[in-house]
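Deliverable D5.2: sample structural annotation.
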Amino acid sequence: MSKSDLSRIFVAIPLMNELDNIPILLDQLINQSLRPVIISFCINQPESWRKLPDKKEIILNNRKTLLYLNKVSASFPIPIIVLDHTSPGNGFHSNVGCVGLARKLCIDSFLSFTNSNDIIVNMDADTYYPDNYFENIIDIYNQLPLLSGVCAPYYHKIDNLPEDKARLMLRYEIFLHYYTSQLLLIKSPYAYMPIGSAMSFRVEAYKKAGGFKVKDAGEDFYTMQQIRKIGIISSWLDNTIYPAARISDRVVFGTGPAIGLNLENQIKKYPFYPTYLFKKIESYYQILEHSNSIDDIIENLKEIIPEEIILKIYKNHSQRDKFVHAIHEYFDAFHILKFLNNNYSVDINNDFEYFKNFYQELFKKDITYKNWQEISIDELNLIRDDLYNYELNLHRDKLNFLLMNKTDKKLWKYLKMF
């Protein structure tokens, strides 16, 4: 293997209001068993925040972070790039935090130094990473040379949260594990959870996907969706990352906003979609991948894809594998979520029941409670642990399948159930 074929780590870290976390983060980076080639920080906030009195503390915090990192970088044992999007005139021209733009700028700052086989690791300053995190990431990419991305296992810290926020945090993470597990059970090609602090991808896949998707919301979601259309994403590692649980309005979706809501509004935004809807998606998958009749496929899939689009895809991709791939490419993670939302009217009173039915059937454990408020934090934590471990086992099984089929070109090239 030539030197250029060996994968190296490059790290992208957006920063906003993170001064207190920087020393701990730098220690974690130094203590990694495998050190990265370059770490790029982007200290940022919208320029418009300078006019808002309630944002002055964040701007001051960012300014101190900039001075601290500029001072540290001169003697830090790993090369550091510090991008200043906090000083007057340098802020983002957006009214939202735009963490996706910050990640993109970090990646852009070192992309010219990378090889196609190198790995871009996205991190957050408020997340704990084990000392062998980079080593484990390189290991899985080395084990699976055709792997395009990784969404690492995650487990949110709730130690310092008051009870009401801990309940919201646990319900939200239970929702994430529930959603991913449902997709895994129906063998969806999009069965992963794109959390920014847990994402990594090959440089080659990142470039083919068109780079980081800069939007007002959901950048991690859309970026990993495009990475998945390039190749396979794994969600198994030998270790887990631990994001902090703190209220934040820096992004529209994610942990910060989720625990800033009250329970009713969180249920409305992150409902436990009934299992029968996931089963319905599975039936579409089965018809797509096993029916030999295009008329049968059109008749059934027109419920989720307009008939004219199916016909256009078939005209352009009449070969079986390519047709199935193109349909999965269209009916992607976004369209799965859209289907669920279009076919489910959120029922505040039944939200807990939908979860409870799934949990009891899966684990053969009775839940006597009738709503989220009745369960103690300790018991919610145990439920979180059950789902975390269950999902992890499914990802491990999927990894083993990939390892046994690492030379199956069709598996790695085309989107399909597995």
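Annotation notes: The CA atoms of residues 10 and 37 lie 6 Å apart. The mean pLDDT is 93.
The annotation will be released with the project's public dataset once the embargo ends.
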